[in-house]
Design goal:
This protein is mainly alpha-helical. It is 63% helix and 3% strand. Among the domains are: 454-554, no CATH class; 558-697. The protein is globular. It starts with 21 loop residues before the first helix and ends in a 7-residue tail after the last helix.
Length: 697
């Protein structure tokens, strides 16, 4: 007989708690109206193009000659192409299933299934057909077949992010699941399916360039006597795409607005099962928990570059959560309370405005909504992990899913998780050293003196006491304060650009910036910050590295320190070259994309520019490998540096049709990854230099 695990439900539930309000119905009605209008217009377009094909074929030829035959065939081909354009999405219909999850059978986890079904019974929500686990800090509901759901009743499935079992208490876990069951109960989910279908059709017609577009382009390049229908067809296609863009925007705005109402309503289901506070406290925990998981993922990805794979990423995640527990409890104790003694988790801020495309309302609005009325429920502080019998098995399986589906790593043999954790802790220790210097090197490269200059200045009488390091950091703080002010404005500019800031403008250097000129404002701020970095920090950096050299000398490690200085110069050169190559390529590509017509010569010139950058990068990396390498934590040789940078391979030269073959996208992904890794290793080397400031600790 299966055991049944339960947690408390509210003793009293206000009447009509989960009832749908008028605003919900209004937004659902608008969404339905927009969907109907779209499908009417779309089907009309299909019917019209089909009729054009019929006319082109059946229209009688009163005069038969070479010219009329060409016109007849051109009309048939052009109208046929137009009809195929409106229907080509049909050839791409697939019931896409997420690939990053595993199915959980009731036989394997009866307690979990019983717990889920008990919540369904309490909330009146339909039972899920399947339960899946995935490696994200999230939970969601979807139809088992989104296309069939348009025409017939289809069961829904529940996906639970396994990290939720580690970062939440059982009451909070129940609240999150109940929120999803609230979506189970919402009939308006089907509206979302129709909008998803419409979006799939429109997106394919507007943005996808496939074999149909290639055929049209080839047709236009043929003999004009044959190509004239293609030239007539091109502006028609452009007009259709521009009109569909308007529908695409309108549908998504309406869907997002309805989705926000659905979130408010689903929160009421969470309150029905676990009380008002549980869902709010879970929201409060989820963002930092997601950040912690992201950091673990980065560490495991970096280790995978050296063919070191953990057997269980959740082992590392739990240790990270445990390390942050004290900080979380301190933050919890500092939360204010309302007049009724309930904690206030989220306060209204400049970020508490939803963008029109946001599918979720701001958390402070969700908190106010779910607490009105406030539903009291006893808290269950136990871990949700007790619902699982085979937890380690699922954790290890999902770890392999992450390596394969996220990073394309076919792992044959894993390392012990404790061994990988040592790598993670060593990486974290380096970050602490960098943070100790107010993160000044987070958005800039150190302005390094030459090693010979440091040798000449790092004399024995330089003060390297703890007090002196404190003075240097105080000086640095004064230099950083205007930078922090600018970065605060830059963050605000991003919010304005995204439409999520309540304060929709700011003033800098006697000029006002709002939505209309916010990009210019951001560029102005970025330029000013770079000026501060370039001109205000040079002397301080010089002073810092001279003192670090003197500290290294007291430990008879000056020569090692100077070799690392030289190594850092080379690393910065690679970082800057990677950034310049990427930016220059994208700038030239954007220039070509904004042109109406692009010649083969221009494409060849771009390819030549790309190959010049690639050749220079490969040369720099090869030269770096020839130089002596001062070992770093977890990267001990220049060969390992090359593996981390680009899997030990050269950057690929472009040949032939680089866009059609996918080579261009592959190269840009290579550059993006190499920039991240090069900057990461540069920070590791910098940490190895800064650690000499701790020599007297």
């Amino acid at each position: 007989m299966n055991s049944k695990i339960q947690s408390p439900y509210p003793a009293q539930i206000p009447g009509g708690l989960t009832a749908v309000n008028k605003n919900y119905y209004f937004k659902a009605g608008l969404a339905i109206l927009a969907i109907l209008l779209f499908f009417v217009l779309f089907l009309s377009l299909v019917a019209a193009t089909a009729y054009l094909v019929f006319l082109a074929i059946s229209y009688p030829m009163t005069v038969v000659n070479k010219f009329t035959v060409i016109v007849k065939l051109g009309a048939i081909a052009g109208s046929g192409m137009l009809l195929v354009f409106t229907l080509k999405f049909l050839f791409k219909i697939k019931n896409h299933q997420p690939e990053n999850r595993i199915e959980i059978d009731p036989v394997d986890e009866p307690e979990l299934w019983n717990y889920v079904l008990d919540i369904c019974k309490h909330t009146g929500a339909p039972k899920p057909k399947y339960i899946y686990l995935d490696p994200d800090v999230n939970a969601y509901v979807r139809y088992t077949n989104s296309w069939l759901s348009l025409i017939m009743p289809v069961k829904k499935e529940l996906t639970i992010g396994l990290p939720l079992t580690q970062c939440l208490e059982l009451s909070e876990f129940k609240a999150v699941l109940s929120h999803e069951f609230g979506h189970f109960a919402q009939k308006s989910m089907r509206i979302g399916s129709y909008i998803h279908t419409a979006n799939t059709i429109i997106h394919d017609l507007i943005y996808n360039r496939d074999s149909w577009d290639n055929a049209l382009e080839r047709w236009k390049k043929s003999d004009l006597r044959v190509a004239f229908p293609a030239w007539v067809l091109s502006p028609i296609i452009w007009l259709i795409r521009e009109l569909l863009k308007l529908f695409y925007l309108a549908l998504n705005i309406l869907n997002s607005s309805l989705s926000r109402e659905m979130e408010f309503n689903a929160d009421k289901f969470a309150a029905m099962s676990a009380g008002s506070e549980a869902i709010v406290s879970s929201l409060w925990k989820l963002d930092p928990a997601s950040d912690q998981l992201g950091n673990i993922m980065k560490h495991l990805y970096n280790a995978s570059k050296l063919q070191k794979y953990s057997s269980n990423l959740f082992y590392h995640y739990q240790l990270a959560l445990d390390a942050g527990k004290t900080k979380q409890e301190e933050a919890l104790s500092k939360l204010q309370t309302d007049p009724n003694g309930h904690r206030i988790y989220f306060t209204t801020s400049e970020i508490s405005k939803a963008h029109m495309y946001d599918s979720h309302p701001p958390n402070d609005e969700r908190e106010k909504s779910v607490k009105n009325p406030f539903v009291v429920c006893e808290n269950d502080p136990r871990s949700p992990e007790l619902l699982f019998r085979k937890l380690t098995k699922w954790q290890e399986r999902l770890t392999k899913v992450v390596y394969l589906k996220y990073w394309k790593c076919k792992v044959k043999e894993t390392n012990d998780a404790a061994e990988i954790e040592q790598i993670i802790q060593a990486e974290n220790a380096e970050k602490v050293v960098l943070e100790d210097f107010h993160n000044t090197f987070q958005n800039r490269y150190a302005i390094l003196p030459k090693s010979e200059f440091i040798r000449s200045k790092a004399v024995d009488n330089i003060n390297t006491s703890t007090h002196q390091w404190g003075n240097l950091k105080d000086d640095l703080k004064q230099l950083m304060e205007p930078v922090w002010e600018i970065e605060k404005l830059m963050e605000h500019a991003i919010l304005i650009h995204n439409g999520t800031a309540k304060l929709t403008s700011f003033t800098y250097q006697d000029r006002n910036y709002d939505k209309q000129n916010i990009s210019e404002g951001y560029e102005t701020l970025s330029k000013k910050r770079n000026e501060l970095f370039d001109f205000n920090f040079a002397k301080w950096d010089e002073n810092l590295f001279v003192h670090l050299g003197a500290a290294a000398k007291t430990k008879d490690e000056l020569e090692t320190f100077l070799r690392r200085i030289d190594q850092h110069h080379r690393m910065i050169e690679i970082c800057k070259k990677l950034e310049f190559a990427k930016n220059d390529i994208l700038t030239q590509l954007n220039f070509l994309q904004n042109k109406e017509e692009v010649s083969t010569t221009e494409i060849n010139n771009l390819q030549h520019t790309i190959n010049e950058h690639v050749g220079e990068l490969n040369r720099l990396v090869l030269e770096f490998q020839k130089q002596p390498f001062e070992p770093l934590t977890n990267i001990e040789t220049s060969i390992e540096f090359s593996k981390v940078l680009n899997n030990g391979r050269n950057f690929k030269m472009m040949k032939g049709e680089m866009f059609e073959s996918g080579d261009f996208n592959d190269l840009m992904n290579q550059l993006e990854g190499a920039i991240y890794q090069a900057q990461r290793v540069e920070q590791k080397n910098l940490s190895a230099l800064l650690v000499y400031s701790k020599i007297n600790d």
